Amino acid sequence: MTQYVGNSPTDVLNGFIKRYAYGLRRNDDGELFLIRLDQLQTSDTNVMVINDIGEGTDNFPDFEEGIDFLDGIDANHDVVYKNLRYPQLKWDGRSLLYYVDPSDGQFILRISEGYTYPTDHSADGY
């Protein structure tokens, strides 16, 4: 019999907790980075770093599984917690796909659908 500390995969599938974690950040050059973590996948690459290495006072102290955090940027667009890798964290039970539409540069969300980028567009303009 398999034992779990915390929630089991059955609990996740039954919706007791959010299955997917999404983290969004922008670097100094304006590039967007999005990470998607599936809690039912077990691999060394299926991890999300919350705080980068640095002074402890610059860490995001209130990370809690299942709780969204969308206030990582202040009114001046400055990052509130310097070590926080993803100033916007979202949890969801659904598989969400975020992508940039190559025709108009809009940031799009698809729910439980895939997307294949056209091969005749370049990402250099974004």
Structural class determined from secondary elements: mainly beta
* Tally of helical runs: 1
Shape: globular
Q: Please, what is the oligomeric state?
A: single chain
Mean pLDDT over the residues = 79
Could you give the count of β-strands? 5
Output the helix-strand order. HEEEEE
Distance between the termini: 50 Å
- The structural domain count equals 2
Can you offer a commentary on this structure?
With 126 residues, the chain is mainly β. The protein has two domains: 93 residues, no CATH class; 27 residues, no CATH class. 4% of the residues lie in helices and 23% in strands. The protein has one helix and five strands. The strands form two sheets. Strands 2-1-3 form a three-stranded antiparallel sheet, with no helix packed on it. Strands 4-5 form a two-stranded antiparallel sheet. Strand 4 and strand 5 form a beta hairpin. It is globular and about 50 Å long. It starts with 8 loop residues before the first helix and ends in a 15-residue tail after the last strand. The model has no long low-confidence stretch (mean pLDDT 79).
Helices and strands in order:
Layout (H helix, E strand, L loop, with lengths): L8 H5 L6 E7 L5 E7 L49 E5 L3 E5 L6 E5 L15
Antiparallel strand pairs: 1-2, 1-3, 4-5
Main traits of this protein?
126 residues; three-stranded antiparallel β-sheet; two-stranded antiparallel sheet; 4% helix; globular
